[in-house]
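Problem 12. The chain below contains 171 residues. Write out its predicted structure in token notation.
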Amino acid sequence: MTSKPRFWLPFAARFTLGFAAASVAILALAPRAEAQTASQNKAAVEAKFDAWKAGTGNPFELLADDANWTIEGNSVASKRYPTKEDFLRDVIRPFNARMSVAIKPNVRGITAEADRVVILFDATGNAKDGKPYTNTYAWFFRMKAGRVVEANAFFDAIAFNDLWARVTPTE
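Solution.
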């Protein structure tokens, strides 16, 4: 028994191949679930800076546990901190223990592109010796899945070193 060629087979084959190719292309171009847009990264950072200014949070909450934080330049704290805990333990907690009034940021600008966010801000507070502390910072974040995975910080090392040497941290 001979079968008649079915006229629709070539169309079905082409449709199936076309559909498969289109599906692969869409999956290849679609962002991964953890990917964030530049505007989402910027919004997350802005929200944490707003919370810091209001005294209800801080940008360090965005740090991934394995985030690398590097303080650039020549301050007494300049080096690479390989984890969030290393950075908080060696820099942030001792810094805060030197302050009677915590520093508050005044953001001059936040710029975001792809997975990078750059923040330029001034910060002012009072040290436990009664003297004001004022500094200008530029932080460069690399974000992944809404978390900071790498940070490079620049600031006036003279002002920072003066505070670090002048004021002994207390709990």
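Discussion. The radius of gyration is 25 Å. Students who got a different answer should revisit the alignment rule from Section 12.3.
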